Structures are given as structure tokens and as C-alpha cells.
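W.,

You were right to be curious about this one. When I first looked at the sequence I had no strong expectations either way, so I just let the prediction run and decided to look at it fresh. Below is the sequence, 483 residues in total, followed by the output.
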Amino acid sequence: MDQGQTPLLATLVEHNQGCPLPFHVPGHKGGRMVRDDLLDLWGPSVFTYDVTEVGNFDDLHAPDGAIARAQELAAQAVGAAHTFFLTAGSTAGLLAALLAVSAPGDKVLVPRNAHRSVLAGMVLSGAQPVFIWPPLDCDMDVAGPLALETVEHALSRHPDARVMVLMHPTYFGCVGETQAIIALAKERGMCVVVDEAHGAHFPFSSHFPASSLTMGADVVVQSWHKTLGALTGGAMLHCTGRGKEMLGRIRAFLRMVHTSSPSYLTLVSLDVARSHAATAPQSRWRRVKEYYGQLRDILDGVTGVSVYPGVISAQDPIKLVVKTNDFSARALARELAKAHSIHPELATEDVCLLVLGAGDKDLLSASELGRSIHEAARQARRDNKRKGRFDASWLWERPSAVMKPRDAALSPSEWVPLSEASGRICAELVAMYPPGSAVLCPGEVLDVKTADVIGNMLAENYRFHGVGPPPEYRIAVVSKDRT
């Protein structure tokens, strides 16, 4: 197949050449019902391409035309047996995958730092998570990838586990022994689902870590909007191996959890992003790695900062994790935004995460970005001496689980102030966002220390999903008559 083709884009262009009169949804009627200031800002073409399932546009949930061809091209590009386009992000793909591969009561091995959508999928399916705790880099307060030895130990304790979920890479770009872990799981006859949300670029160059699609994973979910050229929400679910046998189940569950009104703007962006990535010269990807290397060399000479070394195994060069040694990384991020209009992905007290990409050379050269970080660090060190270290070790304390996640999530619940919730059973997943990893899962008991830490972090403007607004910061707990 010719990866230069973009069947979805071609279909829409052909349709618009006929000057169609849209007597169908959406209600903006090709931009005719849009306020002039927004129309001037975005341009009319955005609205003429925002269409629905009419004419030859195909249907995402029953494709047999342009969407089907676009998905076939994507599967070929990454080496999958079948690919589903998603406009609701990797979240929709992970929910459908967990529903398709697990049943009520099934044990699913999952890293504790998995995205909240993985755990939500198990709440919906009724599966029982068996958490595996990845190593914590105590110097950087960054979670590393799972070690093979840790997984072996978990399997020895839970030989009846049917499914394994892996992250490849982690949110911070770290890649571990994924291939060996998948091989071990396949020896046990397990189904392997990989959250590769941050690794959509992996299949396209040896300058990046290898994709889990080449390692025997059954279902792989990628967010193409995170590191490639799709619009926000654009993602793909790829099936190989045993996942291929579950196409019908995955398709059925996608119809349940995915919107029935998918954005055709996002679908077209997926089609074009696939063509762009698949036909890009290797020099484009090589420049990304060189850009990362240049930045590391520059930052090695900046006082007070260091770059996450990825010593556990390998580091994705798209993720630049900058550690501040004697001042707040949040102050560094604020200074970058205020004085240089540079907006990082994430900042905690210890680390500032910047997501790089093939377009960065058009934003700033490595020397310009390095100089901006240097100047921002110098100012932040002068004005914002570190008040205290962000200690992530509390996230690695094993909370007591007294109910199954599904049972707790579906039980009658009440919203109580965080200050009064100690000793209560969580009814909703609580996650610091970003990155979206679970702090507490439904069915786990909130202890005094965790409640205090969450409260202190909320006061410092860290964001949590599953906690209500100030001043009370209410949290959902299982009603006492159900405990």
C-alpha cells in the first residue's frame, strides 16, 4: 500500500469541491452559524471539514470506505494486524481493551503508575487489579519502568493472572525490560495490553526505542496527538497476536465507550499524521535525537540543574526531564513561561518535563532553548530558593484495599471533606494530573498521611482528579452503611 495516500483527506476535499449545502448536523452548518470573531480567528475551512457520517464519509463504528482504508494503511505502517482510529484519546482505547480482554474476577497485573484509564477499565470490566510497584528514582522522584525480576515475583504469587498491562514508555519517557516481560507473559499464556500512549513515534525510526508492537504484545494503544501530528484526542488501538482474535469484542466495546459522533477533523488528522510519519526521511527522526543530545550537553554546564539520565534502561529522546538541585523546578517552569514564553509539560518541586519533537527546530534551536533554560534557572535560583523537597515516596506506600474496585465504585457513596475522610474507603479513583497515575483506587482506605499530603499539595496548586474544589476538597467515599 502507498503510505503517501490519505483517503480520508481526499474524500473530504472532493466533497467540499462540490460546494455542499449541509442540511444535516453539526449545527454550525459549515461555519454559517458561527460568530464572526471565531470565524475570523479559525477560518471557514475548519468548519467545512467538520462533518458527520453522510455521503461517502464512512462511519467510524462500521467502516467500509475511506475510514476503513485509512485504518488499513495505519496498520501496515506500524506492523499491526488491525488498527482502530480513536477520537477520544488513548483513554477510549484502553477502556475498550480492558473490557475486551478481562472478565469479572480476572486478575490483571498492572503497574501502580498506570494511567487512570487503565484502572477505570478494570472498574468497568470487574477485573481485579494486582498492582506491581515499579522502582522509584529517589533522586529524581520519577517512577521507572517495571523490572523483569519484579514481574517474575508477582507472577509467582499470582500464577492465575490472565492479563498483563504494561506502560511503554513511562510518562517520563523511560523504557525498561518490556520485551523480556512480554515474553515471560506469553510463556504463561497471558494476554498483554500495552499503554504506548507516549510512544506513537516508536515504530518509525531506530533512533527511538522499539515499539511493543514488535515484541509480541496483543493490544497496543497509542496517542498520536502526544508525539506526532494528530489533533488532540487522536489515538489508535492496534491489534496483533491474541488481540487479533478479539476484534469483534474490541469493536463492540469501542461502540460503548467511544463517542458516536467522532470528530472528522481528528480522524483526518490521524490519516495525514500516519502518512507524514510513515514517509518521513530518517533524517527527520535523527534530528530529534541530535536535538536532545545537544540539549543534554548544554544543560550539563548549567549550574543547579541536571538531566534525567535514564539509567534504569533507556530514555526516549522526546522526553527531556530536567532536575533542579537547589531550587524549585516549578519556579523554573514559571520563569520559562513568563520570560521566554516556553511552556513545559509538567513541573513538580524537583523536575521539569519538556516534550520535544520533530518540529522543535522550527520553534527554537537547541542552543536557543538551552540558553533560555540557563537564564530561567539563574533567575529562579536567585528568586526562589527551594523551600522543601517534593517527596514522591508516599505514592509508593501500599494502601489497604478492603473492597474490589468495581464494588466500591458502584456502591452508594457520599462526598466528605478531605479533612474528614481519613479511615474511609475511596469510592472514586484519585489521581494527580498530570500524569494521571493513581494515588488511591476505589476500594482502598484513605489514611491520615495520604490525606495530609494531598491536602498540602492541593494548597500548593497541584491538580488532582477525584477531589472536589476548595475550600473543603471533598472526596467520594463509600457510604458507611455499605462498609
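Here's what jumped out at me. The chain is about 35% helix and 15% strand. And, maybe more interesting for your project: Residues 397-482 form a domain with the Ornithine Decarboxylase; Chain A, domain 4 fold (CATH 3.90.100.10).

Coffee later to discuss?

I.
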